[in-house]
Design brief:
Layout lengths: L10 H4 L15 H23 L21 H4 L7 H32 L5 H13 L2 H14 L6 H24 L4 H9 L4 H30 L2 H6 L6 H8 L7 H38 L1
Helix pairs in contact: 2-12, 4-7, 4-9, 4-11, 5-7, 7-9, 8-9, 9-12
């Protein structure tokens, strides 16, 4: 009679439970700390602008002062009392809105073409987009000025519009292209199999899915346009935009109304960005609920 001795490993010897209260390595705090520092670096000047738009100015000609002299809403009530500032502000809004809409349409079409089709010059077009972003603004402004002089095109709102659309298209196209990179073509094919025409498929399926990317690109184009100074300096002619007016006013003193209008622009931009995030979150939530109900 032979006996075979077998030994079974203990269940606890194979895997050990994770230690409770394990300390995180200090390197795990580097990226969050750096990100928080960058965000604060960007937001602190904006916060100061908003704060001092409520500051009292006791000088004969009201100018921005960083010595706190009391709280007031006077500058919000007298936001349009500075000669030349209000027309420049509305000109910048008109220019930013029109150029952003045009650049968003053209940039979206360009992104669709780059993602979905193969054509001659595709690689060159992509490189031009990145060169447009990488090129210094003074180079773009000087080259556009030379082009407009060669074409004998009077400088003014039209040349500003052309310049702002030109440098905004690349940002919109790259933003929308990033959104399209993860787009599932099977969704469009399913819609067409159910009888939808290509046009109906685009408006009812494609456009709602890529709308967050389009809105983000449009907001970026709007911000770039209303903030542009260098390129506008070359091609503005007699038209004075908000940044150009502020630059001229710095030499004699900046009125507090400049901070009021800057606060308005920032508030509108943040509101639009929050709406975009909420809409995207709502779509994702509805998609998850639909998949769960189908399962």
């Amino acid at each position: 009679m032979s006996a075979i001795a077998t030994t079974e490993p203990r269940s606890g010897s194979l895997t050990r439970p994770p230690a409770r209260g394990a300390r995180r390595r200090w390197t795990s705090f580097v990226l969050p700390t750096y990100s928080a520092a960058v965000i604060l670096y960007l937001l602190i000047p904006i916060g100061i602008m908003i704060l001092y738009s409520f500051n009292v100015s006791r000088s004969h000609l009201p100018n921005v002062t960083f010595k706190w002299q009391g709280f007031t809403t006077q500058w919000y009530q007298e936001w349009n009392q500075i000669p030349g500032l209000t027309p420049a502000f509305f000109l910048s809004l008109k220019l930013a809105f029109s150029s952003a809409v045009t650049a968003t349409v053209l940039g979206t079409l360009l992104a669709l073409a780059l993602v979905r089709y193969k054509f001659r010059g595709k690689v060159v077009t992509e490189q031009i987009l990145f060169l447009n972003i990488a090129a210094p603004e003074i180079v773009l402004g000087a080259s556009l000025l030379g082009l407009f002089i060669t074409l004998n095109l009077p400088r003014g709102f039209l040349t500003l519009f052309i310049a702002h659309v030109m440098f905004s298209i690349a940002y919109v196209a790259i933003t929308v292209r990033a959104r399209l990179s993860g787009f599932d073509m099977a969704v469009e094919q399913a819609a067409q199999d159910l009888g939808a025409t290509p046009w109906v498929t685009f408006w009812t399926v494609t456009l709602p899915l890529i709308a967050p990317g389009i809105l983000a690109g449009g907001l970026l184009a709007f911000a770039l346009s209303i903030d542009d100074f260098i390129t506008s300096t070359f091609v503005s002619g007699n038209s004075v935009t908000f940044p150009l007016w502020v630059f001229g006013a710095v030499k004699v003193g900046t009125p507090p109304q400049v901070f009021v209008m800057g606060t308005f622009i920032f508030t509108v931009g943040v509101t639009a960005a929050v709406i975009n995030v909420l809409l995207q979150w709502r779509r994702e939530r509805a998609a998850r609920a639909y998949r769960a109900s189908g399962a």
